[in-house]
Amino acid sequence: AISKSFSPTASLAEFKGKIFGTVTGYEYNDEINKEKKNWKIDEAPIAAQNMKKLSAKKIDFTIDDPAWSR
Fold it and tell me: Are 11 and 25 in contact (CB under 8 A)?
């Protein structure tokens, strides 16, 4: 899920400086791991918590899709 201010086809580079809601224990693919250095990281124990954070505008985006994991 991404916030409404980003296009669903946004390049990962467009998220530079934004807050990425990660999930403890998730392994992200190489493309995500390469870009993570450009983002602020806010970790949650479960993906559902990131959905709440996204709704409350505490994070800018989160990725909860098996296609992005290893």
Answer: no
